[in-house]
Amino acid sequence: VTRQLSTSVGRQGPVKYLTVIGSGLMGSGIAQVAAATGHNVTLVDQTDDILNKSMGNMKKSLERVAKKKYADNPKDGEEFISGVMGRISTNTDSSKAVEKADLVIEAIVENLGVKKQLFSALDKAAPQHTIFTSNTSSIPITDIAASTQRRDRFGGLHYFNPVPMMKLLEVVRTSETNDETFNTLMEFGKAMGKVTVPCKDTAGFIVNRLLVPYMLEAVRLVERGDAAPRDIDVAMKLGAGYPMGPFELSDYVGLDTMKFILDGWHERDPDHPLFKPSALLNKLVGEGKLGMKTGEGFYKHKK
Ligand code: NAI
């Protein structure tokens, strides 16, 4: 009854005030693009040091954008940058940071317990109309939403790295997400300049559900001695027209991330053949060969 009541008094117009929690790789990208498209953003992280660093990174990224976009008029470029940065404020207190929010996007560490703890606190601090979302790649949205009393106003917004470059946004609705919330999320995604695709709350949504098993199948080809990584990459680029081969992509994504996603799916669905662990992937991760970020994965990289 409370849920129905809270929905009927809801005020889910277009999103003006956005709070992004977690200012790492994804959160800072989301904050930057949202501010660049005219939204007021509050960015939250654990310390001011982390937040200052993120603000610096966003500024650098905007400078690259401005250099291209305002090549003939550097003054307009500077105005663009200061305008965008001026729409982003920072806070280390997540409960305070959601007091005015129309929408919250969570992009903190990929851990269900930590996410639930955060949302349960936010649920008490945020207004009734505030929509909650997670950018999780591998945890069911339904499980995170269970920590709140607003499961009807809870969905997933799954962005792609790097957020300023990647056009796609997967908008995830659970069996409890109401229509108004879902529509607001689709509209918000478009207002951010993204192409939105709706999907249900299933393992990997659309992109990762297809991509991660594909990358793992490539690893299994190598494990069986059927072909070498370099040749598989050449084959998929020239034969399937993919911009990167599966091993180049694995090194870019991070082997630890791939393993983490796969292990999570395997735990939830142990009989699924595509979700079975890979000895080679586990070995490389065990050796700290995580891909580009550590200088070596399937390939050696210049740091
Ligand atoms: P990251 O490690 O770069 O950033 C996480 C940030 O959250 C850190 O700055 C950390 O200090 C902060 N944080 C952790 N706990 C917090 C808390 N309780 N309150 C406030 N801040 C907190 O991680 P990344 O890569 O940005 O991932 C974040 C989320 O986005 C994860 O759920 C991940 O699954 C998802 N994701 C990641 C993608 C990627 O390519 N890295 C792609 C799509 C989704």
UniProtKB/TrEMBL annotation:
Q: What is the reaction catalyzed? A: (3S)-3-hydroxybutanoyl-CoA + NAD(+) = acetoacetyl-CoA + NADH + H(+); (3S)-hydroxyhexadecanoyl-CoA + NAD(+) = 3-oxohexadecanoyl-CoA + NADH + H(+); a (3S)-3-hydroxyacyl-CoA + NAD(+) = a 3-oxoacyl-CoA + NADH + H(+); (3S)-hydroxydecanoyl-CoA + NAD(+) = 3-oxodecanoyl-CoA + NADH + H(+)
Pfam families in the record, alphabetically? 3HCDH, 3HCDH_N
| UniProt keyword terms in alphabetical order | Acetylation, Differentiation, Fatty acid metabolism, Hydroxylation, Lipid metabolism, Mitochondrion, NAD, Oxidoreductase, Spermatogenesis, Transit peptide
- Which residue ranges does the record assign to the 3-hydroxyacyl-CoA dehydrogenase NAD binding domain? 18-202
Cellular compartments annotated? Mitochondrion matrix
* Annotated site residue numbers, Important for catalytic activity: H158
Report a single Gene Ontology molecular function: (3S)-3-hydroxyacyl-CoA dehydrogenase (NAD+) activity
* Pathway in which this enzyme or protein is active: Lipid metabolism; fatty acid beta-oxidation
The reply on keyword Membrane is no
Q: Which GO terms describe its cellular component?
A: mitochondrial matrix
The residues listed in the UniProt record as binding CoA, with positions renumbered to this chain, are S61, K68, S137
Would you tell me the protein name for this molecule? Hydroxyacyl-coenzyme A dehydrogenase, mitochondrial
